[in-house]
Amino acid sequence: MKTLLSLNLKKYMISFTILLLIFSGSYWYVYAGNTIKTLTLYGNVEVRTVNVGFRVGGEIISLNVDEGDKVEAGDILGMLDPETFQIAMNQANGAKKRANSLYQLKKNGYQNHEIVQAKADVEQHRAAYQYAASLYNRQKNLWAKNLISANEFDNADSIKNQKMAALKASESQLQKLTSGYQPEEIEATKGELEQAESALNQAELDFIDTVLKAPSSGIIQTRVVEPGTIISSGSTVFTITLSDPVWVRAFIEEPDLGMAVPGKEVLLYTDSKPNTPYRGRIGFVASTSEFTPKTVQSQNTRTHLVYRLRIVVIDADSQLLQGMPVTVVFNQ
Q1: Are 311 and 248 in contact (CB under 8 A)?
Q2: d(CA 138, CA 95)
Q3: DSSP secondary structure string, 88-148?
């Protein structure tokens, strides 16, 4: 009887042990094996800013936005007095037209009627010279016979020389007209035309730059000057906080780097919206480590080496401000 009871007790013990092992394995699989590992980091919002100003100097006649205003890319923010730039553009345009006319003249050469006129001048001066030479010869013979004074002979000689010089000048002009301009002259006028075109392009660009436009969408952070101010080129007029991109800078320790995969989405919590997280995507993981920055270190982590993360905020809004603390939550 005791032996039978002992056997039954052993069977019950074995069955209980088996059931206990099955229950333990099931519990670990359901609760421990499937537990979602989370990682929490702390960082700050990073927002880019742009200093905006005119590329030319002058007097500001209008500013269309103020601090806190939202702007879109291409919105007109302000204007300079355009009068002096309009005058400069007109002058440059006139100089270009003159340079172009001179270049076309030398490129195309002289007109036919100019050559015809030059030939007629040569014939006229040749006839005048022949008459003066003939008169000189007669006067020379008369002077040799003492029939005229030396003064009359000298006058005839002077007239002959003048007519010869006029003939040579007209022949030189005809030669110039028939051969056209030298290649060097044409290239020089072409260079002057190109310089005039460049000057006009610069004047037109300066005129366009009297209008200040927003380079990107954002919010006017600061307005530095007021209408009536005379500013130099490049002086800051507005500072714009860009609405895109907005990211969070955080730091992660080496054992957790496996969770920081570029492209992975995370949740971002702020103190102002603790129950409504933003969505973020890891965009950059630093390839070198650094000591925990003072802005995020604690007594236990100040000597730890960490890696910097840049997390792009997918659904950013105007409530995310520069430097705002953010809690970053990773899910395995």
Answers
A1: yes
A2: 57
A3: HHHHHHHHHHHHHHHHHHHHH---HHHHHHHHHHHHHHHHHHHHHHHHHHHHHHHHHTT-S
Residue 238's pLDDT is 96
CA angle 90, 96, 102 (to 5 degrees): 140
Q: What is the mean pLDDT of each run of 10 residues along the chain (332 residues)?
A: 52 61 55 61 89 95 94 96 95 94 81 73 85 85 81 86 88 73 83 94 96 93 94 94 87 86 90 89 85 54 75 87 89 70
d(CA 245, CA 195): 42
DSSP letters along 146-215, please? Answer: T-S-HHHHHHHHHHHHHHHHHHHHHHHHHHHHHH---HHHHHHHHHHHHHHHHHHHHHHHHHHTTEEE-S
- What gap in Å lies between CA 171 and CA 124, rounded to an integer? 11
Could you give the maximum distance between any two Cα atoms of the chain, in Å?
190
Q: Which residue has the tokens 């320790």?
A: 253
pTM of the model: 0.61
Residue 163 tokens read as 């007519």
Write down the pLDDT at residue 163: 86
Beta carbons within 10 angstroms of residue 315's beta carbon = 11
